[in-house]
Amino acid sequence: VDIQHSFFGYIAISVEVSRAISNDSAMLLYIVITGSAVILMVVVLARRFGREE
Amino acid sequence: VRKYGDDEERAIRAERIVREWTRSGLLEQAQGDRILPQFKVELRRTNLFLRLIMFGFGLLIIGAAVALAGITFKIHNDVPLAMFCLFTGAGCFVLTEFLIANFRLYRFGVEEAAAVAGGILVSLSAAVFASPYHSIAAGQMEIFVAAVAGAAAGFFVYARFGYLYAAIAAIASMSAAPFAIDAPPATHRAVSAGLMLAVFIIARRQRRKLNDEFPGDDYGMIQATAWVGVYAYVNLQLESVESLFRYTTITGRFYWFTFVVIWLLPPIGVVLAIRDRDRPLLDASIVLALVTLATNKPYLGGARQSWDPIVFGVVLIGIAVALRRWLSTKDRNGFTAGRILISEKRGISAVGTASVLLRTVPPGADTNSPRPFEGEGGRSGGAGASGSF
């Protein structure tokens, strides 16, 4: 549930950020950096709090 | 050569089955706990939700990174763009190999995204390479080449990493290629259906050899998909069910030939599936039978009536009740109408949820009202008593 919340939160923030950024390269860079951060965060959360199926 | 060992794939499938049987009450919890350690594999996996998130974000990041590199290096012309796509696609495949080899990921989402992005970039590269040379028909050569390259990339991804959806995408891409060639619509459909039939025959051979044992289960799914594909290309009235399918005007002998074929394919599929105890093919054939019934009226040129779905539903309820009673009267070679596995219940509820996606506009319902509502005055709170209606 925490991961779901953080995921939806990221989308909401990104929508607002995309409105503020007009430069294509800057937007792409934003996606690459923050997207990678989200994946890393999900992996860390899953390893810390996840349980085996 | 497959990236994952056959023993690993079999152990993962066996583990999944033991869990499913335990959840469904076919095994005691203690029995399940005793069996499961045998199928332990040194691969990192995750649940479906996280897998989807990882896959979506992986694709997004790779797409953004490739676009960023393209903008930064100012790549515009055809050949440099094609080379760029080819190299980045190859890079994606290398990344997939790296992630699996170093982190032992299995259906984790990220490595799948890299493999899929690699396939897309390679087929894009082939399309851009083909774009200056319009040898078949102007504007269509690149689509044909992209479809063929996409099919090759999909088959490669399946053969190497075992992603079943890559094989299904490859089949779809391969069968779509004939539509990019300048030919009559009947030829497009006949060639595409023929390709699907060839895939069906090959996959069926393999599936019968291996049964449900890996990779027989994959071949079973490919076989069922190809069967649906044959039907989809042959049924000329699918657009009457959903506007997703392009409308084509085919008449004459081919039209009536397809009418006969859509009535033959579902029962043939059901007979083959029951004989081989092949669940994916059985499910697919039953769905095709329903589609045949639903498209029969438009095929014959009959007008759709608002009570058609009601009659259809009543007929189906009657068939279901009769079938249940027939199966419960005595032993039918192990076939039962009872729900044995919990996953079947989940599957039914997923289909129920997905059904809301179907647009159902009743025939005759006029959605473009000639005179929309217009207020004719009246004070708020006065119930319109002062208006001039």
Structure description:
- The complex is a heterodimer of chains A (53) and B (389).
- Chain A has helices spanning 2-20, 24-49.
- Chain A has 53 residues and is mainly α.
- In chain A, helix 1 packs antiparallel against helix 2.
- The longest helix of chain A has 26 residues, at 24-49.
- Chain A is elongated, with a radius of gyration of 13 Å.
- With 389 residues, chain B is mainly α.
- The mean pLDDT of chain B is 85.
- Chain B starts with 5 loop residues before the first helix and ends in a 35-residue tail after the last helix.
- The longest helix of chain B is centred in the first third of the chain and has 26 residues, at 78-103.
- Chain B has helices at residues 6-23, 29-35, 48-72, 78-103, 110-130, 141-161, 164-176, 185-210, 216-234, 253-276, 279-299, 308-329, 342-354.
- In chain B, helix 7 (164-176) packs parallel to helix 9.
- Classes of the chains: A mainly alpha (53), B mainly alpha (389).
- Chains A and B meet through helix 1 and helix 2 of A and helix 3 of B.
Give the mean pLDDT of chain A: 82
Radius of gyration from the alpha-carbon trace of chain B, in angstroms: 26 Å
**Describe the biggest sheet of chain A?**
none
The succession of helices and strands of chain A, N to C, reads HH
Question: Quick summary of this structure?
Answer:
The complex is a heterodimer of chains A (53) and B (389). Chain A has helices at 2-20, 24-49. Chain A is 85% helix and 0% strand.
What topology emerges from the helices and strands here?
The complex is a heterodimer of chains A (53) and B (389).
Chain A: H1 2-20, H2 24-49
Helix pairs in contact in A: 1-2
Chain B: H1 6-23, H2 29-35, H3 48-72, H4 78-103, H5 110-130, H6 141-161, H7 164-176, H8 185-210, H9 216-234, H10 253-276, H11 279-299, H12 308-329, H13 342-354
Helix pairs in contact in B: 1-2, 3-5, 4-5, 5-6, 6-7, 7-8, 7-9, 8-9, 9-11, 10-11
